[in-house]
Amino acid sequence: LAPFPWEPAGRAVGLLGSRLPLAAMFADRTVAGAEVESLWRSARSARCEAKSCQTGKILTVEAAVQSHTSQDARVQTDQSKDAVQDFQQEVQVDYASLLSFLQRVEDAVIKELNKNWKSRAFDGFEVNWTDQNETVLCLHTLSYPEAQDQNLQVTSLSWNATGSVLACSYGRLDGGDWSTEKSYVCTWNLDRRGLNPQRPDLVVDVPSSVMCVAFHPSQPALIAGGLFSGELVVWDTSRTEDPVIWRTGMTDDTHTDPVYQVDWLPDAEHRNHHRLLSVSTDGKILVWREERGGRLVLAQGFAVVAQQVPRSAQLQKLAWGEAAVGVTSLSFSHFDPCVFIVGVEGGYSLKCSMAAETPALHRTGSSVPLRAPAELTFSPHGGPVYSVSCSPFHRQVLPLHTGAVRWTQNLFLSCGTDGQVHVHSTLQTQPLLSLQLSQKYLFCVRWSPLRPLLFAAASGEGNCHKRPCLTGAVHLFDFEKSLQKPALSLKQGAGERPVHCVEFNTKQTRLLAAGDAAGTVRVWQLSSDFTEQGPREMNHLEQLASETVD
């Protein structure tokens, strides 16, 4: 015990307050602290170490996951020159034995080659290295809002010489006041970046309804148009100020009815020049040439008159023999530039010739004599014919009385207000096939430029879930798949608006354009099924053309 502060050093006070001698008390000294190891803590620490949430140190050992040494195992061979020489020395050819072997098998090999040569197993087979596109897609929906605000309809379509620009004419096929109604010709360049489907690249204002348009076959900027007034106009789309470069004006030679079709014809007198052909329901087929001053002058003309067709085809109330028969459509042979087919209001299709010399008895004040071109009349539709199209594939050799032969167009299509498509041969009056595609009008039919057995038809009626509906449609008919029903019907849009026109693109061959009465143009991308010719398709076309009707 430590001494009290008031006690002298060396003495201490006892517990009972008595004073004891120093020897009997504890001596003053510093003693080291005693340490007693806790068995409890040691045991608990051991238990915590065994059952702790944190693991103890993990020992790792290098087990040669990555090798310490590398060795060339010749993954890529690299022979030495000596090895190559050794290999070449080892190759020895016994040419005598080889010759003996070839002589022994010669007859057997030639026999098999001849057998394969006569085999027809791979007839028509062509390797296709392009990607297959199995769906038909709508790439563009084009329109001109100002024309739609006037309730104008798409009356005609045409692709230019490059296949990149599409021209559309706006007007009316259901009548209208041609003297006051304004209309338009619009173009879209589908290859241009930033294409605006509702803003055409070019808009031409026309004072009369435009019934048809046609791009020049080699000059991409020239467009010809036929008007409701009977006039013809040619525009140059490269001129932004005044695109009109030629026109017929209103003369005695001008059509007196709407012009429903225009075509560019090669000029036989001037190489690389073209003349313009027009077709009208006044019964006249006129050929025009350009003159100085921007005038189109009549070069030659034809008139389809009642004396050349059955009486039932006459629609003009004139004396029989001098009555004009309204012409609605025309298609030239792809093999004979003198032969063409026309469709007339009376429901007939006529085979005609540019070389005809018979004068027409049609009384007109024409500046050139008109000739009667019809040579053969085909079995009629149940109403006016609206469109005809000659096959670009089929032709036939006909012997002439002189002993020579000539190629002739054989197959063509026609359609009309009876909803039927007729497949005709020019060698007989009855159709080879009559296809009821619609209960409504068929306004246009076009033979495919790629597939001999494929054509497209523009209708006022489509097919909705395998049942007829009133929405206009484009029917793709493939004779290789069926002779009775379309392979595919493309719905043009909502509402009861017919499709008036359809055009294949002969340059960008997967594109198909269709225009309707709602003022809308749709550009479709066709699948490979509709653009690639089958191995025996030409043979099937020959079989179809060879059929005869009793």
Keyword list:
cytoplasm, WD repeat, disordered N terminus, WD40/YVTN_repeat-like_dom_sf, 5-stranded mixed sheet, about 35% strand, mainly beta, about 550 residues, Methylamine Dehydrogenase, Chain H, WD40_repeat_dom_sf, 4-stranded antiparallel sheet
Can you describe this structure in just a few lines?
With 550 residues, this protein is mainly beta. It contains five helices and 33 strands. The strands form nine sheets. The chain has a five-stranded mixed β-sheet with strand order 10-11-12-13-17, with no helix packed on it. A four-stranded antiparallel β-sheet has the order 1-33-32-31.
Low-confidence stretches: 1-20, 48-52, 313-322, 462-470
At the fold tier of CATH, the topology name is Methylamine Dehydrogenase, Chain H
The termini sit apart by: 149 Å
How many structurally independent domains? 1
**Order of strands in the sheet with most strands:** 10-11-12-13-17
Radius of gyration: 46 Å
> Number of helical segments?
5
| Residue share in β-strands | 25-35%
CATH hierarchy: architecture: 7 Propeller
Q: What is the arithmetic mean of pLDDT?
A: 80
The first-level CATH class name: Mainly Beta
By secondary-structure content and strand pairing, the structural class works out as mainly beta
Shape: extended
State the share of residues found in helices, binned by percent.
10-25%
Main sheet properties: 5 strands, mixed
The total beta strand count reads 33
GO biological process, one term: intraciliary transport
GO molecular function: dynein heavy chain binding; dynein light chain binding
Subcellular location: Cytoplasm
Organism: Rostratula benghalensis
